[in-house]
Each structure stands twice: as C-alpha cells, then as structure tokens.
Amino acid sequence: MLFHVVPLAEWATGPDRPYRPASLAREGFVHCSADAAGALAVAGAHYRDVPGTLLALVVDEGRLTAEVRWERSGAGVFPHVYGPLERAAVTAVLEVRRGPDGAALELVARA
Question: What's the pTM value of the predicted model, to 2 decimals?
C-alpha cells in the first residue's frame, strides 16, 4: 500500500474522475509515502500551515494503471506514481489528526 497526503478540499473536487494533484502537471508524478509514518512526516513537513482537514489516501499499488517508481529523494527512497490516481485504487481515506500548532499526530478513520 502507498499513502498520499492531500487537503480534503482538493480530494473532494471531481469525485467521478481520477485524482490529478498539481504535482502531476508540475513534476510529472504524484508524491507518495511507503507507510503511515511516512505520510505523517510528509503532512508535518509540507502541510503544517495548510488550513482545513488533511487526508491520507491509502492506495493499492496493484490497482493503479500508472507506473510506480521507487526513487531517491533527499535522504530516502519514495514511491512516485507517474500518472493519475484512480479512485478505485484508493482503499481507505484516513484523516490526519493535527495538534494546535498544525503538527501531524496520527492517522484516524474518518467519522
């Protein structure tokens, strides 16, 4: 399973179409993490000041039609999806619970 962090408002647009984040047009791929801990680290590092609800999409790599490449980025190796995320590949949508300072604390099932 892969994890992708996204603001709720962005995920909610176009629910009948594959999800295409801005990074796909800008960089050619969708940034993902290999596990929940990685998703929390991404949320804390890149989304701390983003207002509103943050989600972590749990993506079944086997259901994607796009190519997934594990590539070095900074000090680690991360999965990059070279195409849109089909919504049928998303097996769960978790909420990123954040502290008062915006720090990502945990992933929880959406109520």
Answer: 0.93
